[in-house]
Write a structure and sequence with these properties.
alpha/beta; Globin-like; Elongation Factor Tu (Ef-tu), domain 3; Rossmann fold; 3 domains; six-stranded antiparallel sheet; six-stranded parallel sheet; 17% strand; globular; oxygen binding; Riboflavin_synthase-like_b-brl; NADP
Amino acid sequence: MEEIMMLNQQTIAVIQSTVPVLKEYGTAITGRFYERMFEAHPELLNLFNHANQKQGRQREALANAVYAAALHIDKLEQILPAVRHIAQKHRSLGVKPEQYPIVGRHLLAAIKEVLGDAATDEILEAWADAYGVIADVFISVEQSMYEQAESQPGGWEGFRPFVVDKKIVESDVITSFYLLPQDGSDIALFEPGQYVSVKIDLEGNEHTHLRQYSLSDAPGKPYYRISVKREGSLAGKPSGKVSGNLHDRVAEGDVLWLSAPAGEFKLETKGETPVMLLSGGVGLTPMVSMANTLAERQPNRRAAFVHAALNGNTHAMRDAMLQLQEKSPGLSVHYCYAEPTPEDRELERYDKEGVIDASWLKTLLPDPDAVVYLCGPVPFMKTMFAALQSIGVAESRIHYEFFGPAGSLAQEDLLAPAGSK
């Protein structure tokens, strides 16, 4: 377990006194922080999802993290699971130790700028001390992750070229890419549920774009598979730059640059505890990896694969999961369509129409003590999280994954590990 340097009681008291202010002004501070930092260091835009910046998701996530750090400043060891989750993302993006002082400098300047005279020298000094301690923990955790990623069999440092061996259209909105290492050598194993970062340079764009995609097949194959949703495709919005590029421009034989697999959202395969794999939309990708792994390693382990989609046209890997069910005695597969097509109804492609609710979930849960893995759009996950708790599933048995900046479904703890991630 990582050690955290203790702050003195005066510093802790000062930090705790800022909690109400951070709750009120947190997003204003982090919004100004990003503006300042990118103005001074535009090269750091290469590390950030620009869409999340524009939508405010990154700003809100950082505000929540700063608020939670202040809230738990007297027991920082409690945020270590969340630190490890964020550190996994940092490692997959290539965040380096020398970038932490830059962040600290602009964060303190943003606090001073937004709060004005309320940000006294005593408060700024206390936050400087606290940031230094937290940054040291991140640097230490990430260093061990970098070393592990590079030293493991088939591992590597930074980004490695992979050739698109196959490109398979899975639905109207999701396409899978089968990726082989360009040098033909071994690739690192991963845990079902983990992801890779893909680095792409887009024509006409000054900055590199990085996106994280869950690995959607079982580990141990000679390839990695990612299954990518064309963002914006169902809401009448312009297609996401990176997902649109992957769908429209990247072809078989092209090269993509990948980080080594990362992530704290992982299927536990050492025991036989029953599981529910619960997903919505493209959130099925890590669940497909988990289901395929169970079929290979633990075919008799009781597992319920429950997926919500708009309809059969948008539902990826529908038949593949039904075929998996046929050869896995412990697996049951269940589909819910919000707006089934006439063909969906005629062919009985789904089990429930509308939305997944608590009463239906209760009938599908393979065991009262089952562990649940949850992934999908944030509103879907919030609804499912509440539904699961209402039928008696303890929060400690619900593990979840956010696609995008870290968050929490537990309202009382804004820095809960994203998937106790």
